[in-house]
């Protein structure tokens, strides 16, 4: 029962919230006690995950609401907006890491690089957080793909980026432990490289979420699957005006199908129902199909 709950969008996000609270608190405390700027920055990045976790929880709750008088098509776009917010926050986080790292490296070159005085505990804390955050990334991404929730998938990448920053912190702290002052430049250099990867992931998330807001069509593979289901439906001579759009990780579409003009209204309705059912069986992402029935051979 508990395992099934974790595999839901709400469940995996609550687990993420608890993990982030523990890691952020431990890292920030270690940064203060051991005077480690690196682990303190890593802890603040983990703390930023708490904000996105809360945003995802609010988004999951709101986007699952049914249609109402003011929102005839439901509330799935809310998850798209949350995904956009998370992507933007990742862009900001990447920019901050790069800025902070460049400043630190500049200080090192000019003899003003202030490093950690006691790096052992912060180093092992960074090491422990890497597999924890990578596990959360894989679990959250799996749930996001299963539920087709763009906000959950975006939050998964937030976990991966936190793991990246912990890798950078571990490399820098490890360099301090092994080489002392002469190796401290590894910290800002590694952080800059990993922040670049973070920025690329963030841009993909923002692009994906923004494309949904302008009604981008599904992938070519999914469109081909839908069109094959259309062509194979008994009674459909041909079709046109086929349109599909992404909405909250799902697909809504409409199509005009041409049928025998001698059919009764009931028979035409049965074909339209068959089209809808066949498409939804072929592509589980499709949540809404509007089928217009037209007589073939006319016009």
Draw up the topology in text.
Blueprint: H1 2-6, H2 9-33, H3 37-63, H4 77-109, H5 120-147, H6 150-179, H7 186-213, H8 220-231, E1 238-247, E2 250-259, H9 265-282, E3 286-295
Parallel strand pairs: 2-3
Antiparallel strand pairs: 1-2
Describe this structure in words.
With 299 residues, this protein is mainly alpha-helical. The chain has two domains: 2-213, Alpha-lytic protease prodomain-like (Up-down Bundle), CATH 1.20.1510.10; 220-295, Cation efflux protein, cytoplasmic domain (Alpha-Beta Plaits), CATH 3.30.70. The protein has nine helices and three strands; from the N terminus they run ααααααααββαβ. The chain has a three-stranded mixed β-sheet. Strand 2 (250-259), helix 9 and strand 3 form a beta-alpha-beta unit. Helix 2 (9-33) packs antiparallel against helix 3, helix 3 (37-63) packs antiparallel against helix 4 (77-109) and helix 4 (77-109) runs antiparallel to helix 7. The longest helix has 33 residues, at 77-109. 40% of the residues are buried.
What is the gyration radius calculated from CA atoms?
25 Å
Q: Roughly how many Å apart are the termini? A: 58 Å
Text of the CATH class of the largest domain: Mainly Alpha
How large is the count of helical segments? Answer: 9
Instruction: Specify the CATH architecture of the largest domain.
Output: Up-down Bundle
Relative helix content: 55-70%
Strand content: 5-15%
Largest sheet: 3 strands, mixed
- Overall tally of domains: 2
- Largest sheet strand order: 1-2-3
């Amino acid at each position: 029962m508990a395992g099934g709950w974790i595999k839901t969008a709400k469940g995996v996000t609550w687990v993420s919230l608890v993990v982030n609270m523990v890691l952020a608190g431990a890292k920030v405390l270690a940064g203060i006690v051991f005077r480690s700027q690196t682990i303190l920055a890593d802890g603040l990045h983990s703390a930023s995950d708490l904000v996105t976790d809360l945003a995802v929880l609010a988004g999951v709750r709101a986007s699952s609401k049914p249609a109402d008088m003011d929102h005839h098509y439901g509330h799935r776009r809310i998850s798209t907006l949350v995904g956009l917010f998370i992507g933007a926050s990742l862009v900001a986080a990447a920019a901050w890491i790069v800025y902070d790292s460049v400043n630190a490296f500049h200080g090192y070159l000019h003899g003003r690089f202030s490093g950690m005085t006691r790096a052992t505990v912060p180093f092992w804390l960074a090491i422990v957080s890497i597999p924890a955050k990578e596990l959360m990334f894989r679990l959250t991404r799996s749930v996001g793909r299963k539920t087709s929730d763009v906000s959950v998938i975006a939050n998964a990448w937030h976990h991966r980026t936190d793991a990246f920053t912990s890798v950078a912190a571990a490399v820098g702290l490890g360099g301090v432990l092994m080489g002392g002052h002469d190796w401290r430049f590894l910290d800002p250099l590694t952080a800059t490289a990993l922040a670049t990867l973070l920025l690329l992931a963030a841009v993909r998330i923002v692009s994906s979420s923004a494309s949904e807001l302008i009604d981008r069509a599904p992938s070519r593979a999914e469109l081909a699957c839908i069109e094959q289901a259309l062509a194979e439906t008994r009674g459909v001579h041909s079709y046109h005006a086929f349109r599909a759009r992404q909405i909250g990780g799902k697909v809504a579409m409409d199509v005009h199908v041409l049928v025998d003009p001698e059919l009764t209204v009931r028979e035409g309705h049965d074909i339209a129902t068959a089209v809808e059912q066949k498409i939804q069986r072929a592509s589980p992402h499709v949540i809404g199909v509007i089928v217009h029935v037209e007589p073939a051979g006319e016009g």
